[in-house]
Design brief:
By secondary structure, this protein is of the alpha/beta class. It is built from 26 helices and twelve strands.
Length: about 725
């Protein structure tokens, strides 16, 4: 026997099934309606007991700025012109806060004398004079007024509505109008306070700045005298500062120095060139002077020409005469004189260039001294000029601030005399005879929804708290067992007890559902049908005996020989259901008393037989463990097509565990809505521990009319099926 093939694995908790909760809500619809009715009655009773509240509205137009009476250049202290959306939104939000402020509410209380108004304070019902006075003293009328004010701005406009609530419609209108007047007065008072404070401050600053302006002018005059400076650089026509005389002198010296240095550079270059030419020439030669521009001009050029002519003449004479010849010596003498004169002229030229260079250098030194002196004087004057400009700026700033403060002070004197406001009343409040609260219709809808949601919440809460096995999904998903079928509750009628209901009503819905269970058992093992099946339950009073009886009936209707074997040796009841004696049965056969033919009893149902329990033994579990019981079960398997064993529950005793190891499998009966999931899981776990073959589970006592069970597929197909023919058969 393959024992592991039908073992049910540990089933995880299923995910959320929306339809399950929908069915739960529908099943508990009367509970939901009851909760809803209670909530609505309580809510309406509470609503009708509430005092009637009336409201009155005053419309105001709030401009960003007050009307312009003075010139546009005269600015008020609080006259900020706002031109963008966010600035205007912030402004109107601020005005809403002002309207609901304690300052405005205090003005309303003082003007209407609400501190002594017992009706307004809600203490008029106190009869005791002392108690009423204490209650009035403890009340805060300002806070009460603030709590009744609501500011309602109008979209895309400058109109603001002030709504005030009260139990008296006339007083609500009076309060709304007074709040508007108090807000206008508070707004004007705030503006005047701000203007007066600014005027006082400006007056103080004006005196201080006037004194500072006079002191600054005097300090400037004293500085000019102490510095002995009559002319400073002052702004020119183009706004730039004109240079001082020291700066002009410094610039003039610098210009001259640059010119001298330029000339000195040229002379230095000339002297260096002459010296280089003399250095490169042969000693005593004069041809080095040919590179000088002066050698080709004036007397020096004539002297050179004479030297060349005399040298040419001497060369011509040397062709005819010897050097000692008088003519040669005379010619050579003249040539020497001319050359010496040329050399002296050249030396004078060089000395003249060096002398000019030395003179320019001396001039440079003189100019440098003058530049340094002019620079020192310019720096000293600049330092004085900085101090002067600082004093001059302070004097001008003090004078300018004094004039500005004086002008603003005069403007505030004019604006402070104005009493214009940027707020005006558009529509005054009128008494409204229709209360705004309580709104019976809205309250009815509100409590209707609250009651409906509360009822649904209670139904869902009960569903979540329900830990019983109640549906096919619970069997398959939560317990991990195969669902064999369901049995409706069988109630006794005039024809007999409930156990034989299907026999009396073979066309009833219960009979059809029981046949479906029989079919499911056959389909679970078509090649090797179940010959011996233990029927047990997780706990007592779950209807396992009734299931055994009715399942045996529908199996016998197919022509199979079926034996109902009562192995519940603690509380047997099969013999009572069929009305057979219980003096001999299973316990008798196991201990060797009586015969099998005498113990098996026939019933009114063809092919259905019953083997009662027999006398109750003191040790049922040990009796079922014996070889004699195994041999008895083997004989019964040979004589009958199917043997159904009615066993005790799995929870209290272990009899069903013993039987499950000796049969083809065990069928678990669970009472819908009663058997707890944890109890069923413990029973399944105990069967798994002994490696029993669990065929599946069957739900008993299923209420097909309830939403929780009627929506299941196992109920819809049989509802009403066969009732008409069954009734006809019963009538005949």
């Amino acid at each position: 026997m393959e024992e592991t093939s039908h073992e049910a694995p540990e089933a995880p908790e299923p995910s959320l099934d929306v339809m399950q909760y929908v069915h739960a809500v529908w099943r508990r619809k009367w509970l939901i309606l009851g909760v809803m009715a209670v909530v609505m009655l309580v809510g309406l009773f509470h609503t009708l007991r509430q005092p009637k509240i009336y409201t009155a509205n005053t419309s105001l137009i709030i401009d960003v700025a007050a009307p312009r009476v003075l010139d546009t250049e005269v600015k008020e202290v609080m006259g900020d012109e706002r031109g963008n959306y966010w600035a205007n939104k912030e402004y109107y939000q601020t005005q809403s806060e002002v309207i609901t402020s304690r300052a405005v509410a205090s003005r309303v209380v003082d003007r209407l004398g609400l501190r002594n108004d017992a009706a307004f304070l809600g203490v008029a019902g106190i009869q005791d004079e002392e108690a009423r006075k204490k209650a009035m003293a403890a009340a805060d009328p300002v806070a009460m007024v603030r709590s009744r004010i609501t500011v309602i701005p109008s979209a895309n406009s400058r109109v603001v509505r002030i709504a005030v609530e009260d139990v008296d419609p006339k007083r609500a209108a009076l309060l709304a109008n007074e709040v508007a007047d108090a807000y206008i007065a508070e707004n004007l008072s705030l503006r005047l306070k701000t203007t007066e404070g600014a005027s006082v401050w400006l007056e103080e600053r004006m005196g201080e700045l006037g004194s500072r302006a006079g002191t600054s002018e005097l300090d400037l005059y004293k500085f000019k005298r102490s510095a002995d400076v009559l002319s400073m650089s002052v702004p020119g026509k183009d706004g730039q500062q004109q240079p001082s005389t020291a700066k002009l002198a410094y610039d003039s010296f610098m210009t001259e120095l640059i010119a001298v240095r330029t000339k000195m550079a040229a002379l230095q270059a000339r002297v260096d060139a002459i010296r280089q030419l003399r250095k490169n020439a042969s000693p005593g030669a004069e041809h080095w002077a040919e590179g000088l521009s002066e050698a080709n001009e004036g007397a020096l050029r004539d002297l050179r020409d004479k030297v060349l002519e005399q040298r040419t003449r001497c060369v011509e004479l040397s062709e005819r005469y010897l050097p000692e010849h008088p003519k040669m010596q005379e010619c050579q003498g003249k040539l020497d004189v001319l050359q010496q004169e040329l050399r002296r002229s050249l030396e004078n030229l060089v000395k003249g260039a060096e002398t000019a260079l030395a003179a320019v250098k001396a001039n440079e030194r003189t100019l440098l001294e003058r530049v340094e002196q002019a620079k020192t004087e310019a720096f000293a004057l600049t330092e004085k000029e900085i101090a002067y400009q600082k004093l001059r700026r302070e004097a001008e700033n003090d004078q300018r601030l004094y004039e500005m403060v004086l002008k603003r002070f005069k403007e505030l004197e004019l604006s402070g005399q104005l009493r214009t406001s940027n707020v005006r009343v558009l529509d005054a409040a009128l008494p409204n005879p229709v209360p705004v609260r309580p709104n019976t219709r809205s309250a009815f809808m509100l409590f209707f929804l609250l009651g409906l949601m509360g009822g649904v919440a209670v139904a869902l809460g009960l569903e979540l708290l329900d830990a019983s096995v109640a549906s096919r999904a619970d069997v398959e998903e939560r317990l991990g067992l195969a669902f064999i079928g369901a049995m409706p509750p069988l109630k006794p009628d005039d024809g007999g007890p409930a156990d034989l209901y299907i026999h009396r009503h073979p066309r009833s819905q219960a009979a059809e559902m029981c046949r479906a269970i029989r079919t499911n058992l056959l389909f679970m093992s078509p090649d090797k049908p179940f010959r011996t099946v233990v029927v047990s339950s997780a706990g007592p009073s779950e209807g396992k005996s009734t299931v055994v009886i009715n399942l045996g009936m529908v199996m016998a209707q197919t022509g199979s020989r079926v034996l109902l074997m009562d192995t519940d040796m603690r509380r047997p009841r099969l013999h009572r259901a069929f009305g057979v004696p219980d003096d001999m049965g299973v316990s008798s056969l196991v201990v060797g008393e009586g015969s099998l033919e005498g113990a098996i009893k026939s019933t009114d149902v063809p092919n259905l037989f019953v083997l009662p329990c027999g006398p109750l033994p003191p040790n049922p579990a040990e009796l079922l463990h014996t070889r004699a019981f195994s041999e008895l079960l083997g004989k019964l398997r040979e004589r009958f097509d199917c043997v159904l064993l009615d066993s005790p529950p799995l929870g209290p005793v272990s009899d069903a565990l013993v039987l499950s190891k000796q049969t083809d499998g065990i069928l678990l009966v669970l009472k819908a809505g009663v058997t707890q999931r944890e109890q069923a899981k413990r029973a399944i776990r105990s069967l798994r521990d002994v490696k029993a073959r669990v065929i599946g589970a069957l739900l008993n006592h299923v209420d097909l009319k309830g939403g929780r069970y009627g929506a299941e597929s196992y109920g819809n197909g049989y509802r009403g099926y066969g009732n008409e023919r069954d009734e006809q058969r019963s009538a005949s």
